[in-house]
Amino acid sequence: MADNPTLVNITVNGQQLTAPAGTLLLEACRSAHVEVPSFCYYPGLSLQAACRMCLVEIEKMPKLQTACTVVITEGMVVRTDTEQVHRARKSAIEFILTNHPLDCPVCDAGGECELQDMTFKYGAAESRFTEPKRHREEQQWSPIVYFDRPRCILCYRCVRVCGEGMDVWALGVGNRGVAASIIPNHSDHLQCEECGMCIDICPVGALTSGPYRYKTRPWEMKHVGAICTFCGDGCKTTLGIRNDQIIRGDNRDKSGINGDFLCVKGRYAFDFTQNPERLKQPLVRVDGELRPTTWSFALETVAKRFQRIKSAQGGFGVIGSTRTLNEEDYQLQKFARRVLGTNNIDHHRTADFPALATALAARTNTPGTALPLANSSSLKTAKAILLVGNDPTNQHPLLAWNIRTAYRNHKTRLYVLNSGDIKLRRQAFRMAVIPAGGEAAAIRFLNGEADSVPAELTMVGGPDPKRWPQTPPSVPQKIAEGLQDFRARLRQEQDVIIVFGAEVRGEAVRELVAFGDTLPGNTRYIALADNANSRGAADMGLYPDLLPGYRPVADAGARAHFEQLWGGTIPAEPGLNLPQMLAAAAAGKLDALYIAGANPLRLHPSAAEGLRKAFVVVQDMFLTETARQADVVLPVLCSYEKNGTLTNTCGEVQAQKRGGMFEGAKSDLAIIHELAELMGCGFGPAAEDKIFGEIRANVKGYDLSLVQLLAGRSALAAPLNETVAHRDDPELIQPNNDTLFTAGTLGRYSTTLNSVMERRLQKESK
Amino acid sequence: MSQEVKIISKRFDDPKAATLDGYLASGGFQALEKALTMAPEAIIDEVKKSNLRGRGGAGFPTGMKWSFVPKQSERPKYVLCNADESEPGTCKDRLILQYDPFSLIEGMIIAGKAIDSHQGYVFIRGEYRYLFDIMERAINEAYRAGYLGKNIRGSGLDFDLYAHSGAGAYECGEESALMESLEGKRGIPRLKPPFPAISGLYGGPTVINNMETLATVPHIIVGGGEWYANLGVPKNGGTRLFCLSGHVARPGVYELPLGVPFPRLLEVGGGVANGKKLKAVVPGGSSTPMFTAEEAMGLNMDYDSIAKAGSFLGSGGVVILDENTCMVKFALRIMQFYRHESCGWCVPCREGTNWLHLALGRFHAGGGREGDVDLLREVSENILGRTFCPLGDAAAMPTLSILKRFRQEFLDHLAGKPCSCGVSGRPALATH
Ligand SMILES: Cc1cc2nc3c(=O)[nH]c(=O)nc-3n(C[C@H](O)[C@H](O)[C@H](O)COP(=O)(O)O)c2cc1C
Ligand code: SF4
Ligand code: SF4
Ligand code: SF4
Ligand code: FES
Q1: Chain B within 8 Å of A169 (Cβ-Cβ)?
Q2: Dihedrals φ, ψ of A265, to 5°?
Q3: Of A534, A516, A509, whose CA–CA distance to A439 is shortest?
Q4: Which one-letter DSSP state was computed for residue A269?
Q5: Helix (H, G, I), strand (E, B) or coil at A211
Q6: Architecture field, domain A7-96
Q7: Which CATH code fits A283-348+533-727?
Q8: CA-based Rg of chain A, rounded to a whole angstrom?
């Protein structure tokens, strides 16, 4: 696309319009608020000209033309308001309705159906079709996707969004004429990513979702624009709430950073909130057994014990969460440092943000300028993207969608360096498959001058030996040539966005940034972390050696700043990291472990025994393996039940809005504040906006426009602009390697995700 | 008796012409020898001069179509033969396939030379399975004798040709749907522009012609464009195969010059069968608006004259209807076909043909209601000109012409009067 597209003048209904050359007539009209109705047209998807709803008159053309396919030309004279056009619209509706069942009273889409709206606006008052309608039974295609053929108007949006958008191609069209029908890829069922894109893009109620169908009428819900609590991409999911319960998730107003995109988790996995196993009461261990108790008793038990340990100068450890809100994370580390007096605080790390922050800060000698971080939507228009490690299709569905969009609309050149045969290879301009663990070596090669490719990268029998079947001696040579070509091509690119997964950490991050610096133009970066607020946890200082904003604990100035702010002292020594805390507990060197929204025993099961030696407090929604070892378990609200902010993996800060409610649980924030209060170190009221104000003023990069956040838009936080020393702990980075249908501990509690996986197993074993 | 002018049909009576030897013995491949010495532009000029117009339906000037193909192209160019012949009333291409397959091969190689294409496909209607083998055999023979493949007859020209069988869809005769089908996809038409000459098969510049069109080309090259043009009338060069069917004494395929008066054509077919009176005529396949007997008797059978009279010469399928034909039933039968053949892609055609078919069925069976005749007309009008491809028009146009010209018959049905077929008031034929 040219930066300065030439403008074209047209006349619509006598009104002069100007739009860039190449604009579709329908878009040109809409941009001037001239309504052109449509069904099959969908921005960003291929053109169909099938519904014939958008017909308009164009001077010098004998027939009515489809505004959705005509590209405007200079001097074009168009009419959308003539008798002929009105008749054409009316008749298109009439034709569609001939075989439409008009079962609106029981249809999920009733009240939010484009066909209803169009009939209301453009249709005839009475029906002239008196012949029998075709009936076909509804079909269940998967745990998520149901199909009612009689309601389908064959606009092919579902087919296109699944194919062109999702790159899944699970839907097609079978039969012909009036018998034509949308069909799934496995004769009577779907084998697909279950994203529900097809369902939400359907203008009518032909595709409906298992979790939502026949549950409610849309007008009985209130709609809350929340941020998805699963992966690190931060999609907006509009929650449909009835009686404080979440009934539906979608993004129909397309207002989030994700536009209309959501994956299966963002759309359907909210059902963990209603899981019967959810904790409704605090539990306290009595005689070796966890017993329900009251909130006041539980909190007092914790506060008293903490106080006693503190007085005795005992050791504390604090483990924070990657799904709690920024305000909670910030207060949690404040609680650790200020109230418990310890730097023993950490979280489950899945990306090396400190390494990226240091590497970027080290290279810029212009303090005060924002770091070159890319936001999620910049991927959609990137000229070139380098993806090292990770499998975004599974772990970052939105970013994968954006990369596919870029490829589809802008022919963006994608370079993939991966040890696996990830699905994005289909969009790759160049793909280099390297042995697992070879990422650092590959980056060194990219950044180096040597032409020879290190042998460790050309080992035959990489991830999938089937890929290198014949003539082994020539294969290393081929791989080497491939990598050389990869590097040569990449070096010619400019304005590259470099996206990297957990495989790239520590020194490799610095090497990657050094390489990015050699590329022409403005190189930008995205580090991929797993969970909804992984980035927020890092930015807020859930590190033993880093204060909020990646400011080193060891830095007296940084300490002084927060000490003054919080009124008290912060230990000067960096604390223990997560595995060190577990080890210390096992060695009897930690007296208390406070775990807020984390389940460390999932990845460190052998630490269970050791935990029993300390006083363990766990805040969670469920009795996880860690909670089972606790002395006190405090049931919490989930992200969808709280207000505050979240930071996605790119650094985009977004407001979280309370949708559902859950009787019996408290927010992590409320609990932290109550404990602080009980320990005589009150933090003041647990008001998110006040705390965010403190974050804005004191965490570098978070001085963001409140107005923008409250309006539901995202703001990019670039937290650091000065060189810092931090401890490299690359081995602490442990990605979850989630699939589309898993999400760490949380995913286990979603009935929908489980049913999808069970069904897959059944179908596979058949 | 024969007023036929046998050019394309000259080998139809020669059982050996379907073999390479027989073809060569009857003057085959002389055009190719000549074309091999001609410049591509010269070939196109000759075809332009001949005033040859497409025999597939639209009647587009063939030479002009070829000249739209860009000289330079990154993607390969293609020559396609449309042998999908599915328009009701049309049965001419199959005779070429059966009796003179080499003339098509020869015509396609020449077309290839003219547009600098080295690959062609013959898309043969699925129901012509039995003719497919004849075509394949001819292609194989031509390869063996060096008329196809690399360096044809030592000329340096390369041309590969493949036969491909359709799967039984009328819509796959529409050129862009044909290309989709050939590419292995669902047979639905493509958005135009781009037109095939710019982006056709596999996105390459493509010439697609009807089988008869392509089989005519060798005769033009041998006899010269001017000679051919003079056989017909101005702007309507040469002869064409007329397929006479319906209530005619001797149904069959007859080759006559363009511009032949309709009464002569009828006479060649032996007149209306059983001495009955002529009632109506379909001039160019079931999708063309029909004429009453009076109108038809004053017609000349060339593209422009028929167009002036409000219809199309189309595919040359001329259907003769006698005085006993029930026009309601005829309209119903036509609509049964289009409903069955609509690809279903766009709303007005998919739903409109279904509606018309059901309504006509009910009407013919005696279930007509006040207002039905206008309803049928309005529904047809709502299809006309509003569909994605011309199939919608093909369904609407004949229906509208019948409703207009034979409105009284519909009103008689409604009034319960015995109709010309004598079966008013009860179902006349199964309509599914
Ligand atoms: C619905 C439909 C069916 C068609 N079927 C045929 C066919 O069976 N054979 C044919 O030659 N052309 C058919 N055509 C016309 C082709 O689209 C195309 O115009 C033709 O092949 C061009 O060849 P010509 O220029 O030699 O006539 C059909 C068109 C439509 C709209
Ligand atoms: S749920 Fe998603 S992947 Fe499955 S068919 Fe629908 S769009 Fe395709
Ligand atoms: S199922 Fe819905 S989206 Fe798909 S073609 Fe039918 S109406 Fe359109
Ligand atoms: S008019 Fe529409 S439905 Fe009918 S055949 Fe053409 S594209 Fe298909
Ligand atoms: S919106 Fe243009 S034809 Fe459907």
Answers
A1: no
A2: -70, -45
A3: A509
A4: G
A5: coil
A6: Roll (3.10)
A7: 3.40.50.740
A8: 28
**Cβ-Cβ contacts under 8 Å for A734 (sequence gap 6 or more):** A348, A349, A350, A502, A603
CATH 3.10.20.740 location in chain A: 7-96
Domain with CATH 3.30.70.20 in chain A: 122-274
d(CA A177, CA A60): 32
Cα separations in angstroms, A147 against A184, A188, A213, A271, B382: 10, 11, 11, 22, 29
Specify the pairing of strand A145-147 against strand A207-209.
Answer: antiparallel
Whether domain A122-274 has CATH 3.40.50.10540: the reply is no
In the 8-state DSSP scheme, what is residue B104? Answer: H
Query: Which token pair is A748?
Result: 């286990």
Cα separation of A397 and A376, whole Å?
11
Task: Establish if B174 touches chain A: CB-CB under 8 angstroms.
Answer: no
Backbone phi and psi for residue B256, each to the nearest 5 degrees, phi listed first:
-140, 155
- Structure confidence by residue, pLDDT tens digits, A243-252: 999 999 998 7
- Between CA B388 and CA B352 the distance in angstroms is 13
Which pLDDT score is estimated for A360? 85
Q: What is the pLDDT of residues A104-145, one digit of tens each?
A: 999 999 999 999 999 999 999 888 999 999 999 999 999 999
- CA-only gyration radius of chain B, Å: 22
The CA–CA distances, whole Å, from A294 to A242, A282, A301, A632, A641 equal: 28, 6, 11, 11, 21
pLDDT at residue B46 is higher than 50: yes
DSSP letter, residue A465: G
Distance B329 CA to ligand 4 centre (A): 24
| Closest listed residue to residue A262, CA positions, set A199, A343, A354, A327 | A199
Between chain A and chain B, the number of residue pairs with CB atoms below 8 A apart is 94
| Cα-to-centroid distance, A74 and ligand 5 (Å) | 22
Atom of ligand 5 nearest to the CA of A37: 1
Helices B391-405, B327-341: axis angle to 10 degrees equals: 170
- Angstrom distance (rounded) from CA B137 to CA B142: 9
Q: pLDDT (tens digit, 9 = 90+) per residue, A461-509?
A: 554 556 554 545 677 888 899 999 999 999 999 999 999 999 999 999 9
* Structure tokens that stand for A680 in this block: 């005589």
Q: Is B336 in the A-facing interface, judged by CB distances under 8 Å?
A: no
CA distance A598 to B181: 56
The CA distance from B411 to the nearest CA of chain A, in Å, is 19
Instruction: State chain A's maximal CA–CA distance in angstroms.
Output: 92
CATH class for the region spanning A353-527: alpha beta
Distance CA B18, CA A155 (A): 47
Output the CA torsion A35→A41→A46→A52 (10° steps): -110
Within chain A, all domains assigned CATH 3.40.228.10 are found at: 353-527
Q: Quick one: A513 exposed, middle or buried, by C-beta within 10 A (0-12, 13-18, 19+)?
A: buried
With a cut of 70, say whether residue A2 has pLDDT above it.
no
Between chains, do A50 and B343 touch, taking CB under 8 Å as contact? no
For chain A, where do the domains classified as CATH 3.40.50.740 start and end? 283-348+533-727
Which of A681, A709, A713, A677 has the alpha carbon at shortest distance from A695?
A: A709
Query: Which B residues in the span 104-143 are in contact with A, Cβ-Cβ below 8 Å?
Result: none
Residue A678 identity (one-letter amino acid)? L
Preceding peptide of B193 cis, ω within 30° = yes
Residue B309 has pLDDT above 90, yes or no: yes
The dihedral sign for the CA sequence A678, A680, A686, A692: negative
Question: What is the C-alpha to C-alpha distance for residues B135 and B303, in angstroms, rounded to an integer?
Answer: 30
A62-85 pLDDT per residue, tens: 999 999 999 999 999 999 999 999
> Residue B194, preceding bond cis, omega within 30 degrees?
yes
Please indicate whether, in this complex, the C-beta atoms of B171 and A94 are within 8 angstroms of each other. Answer: no
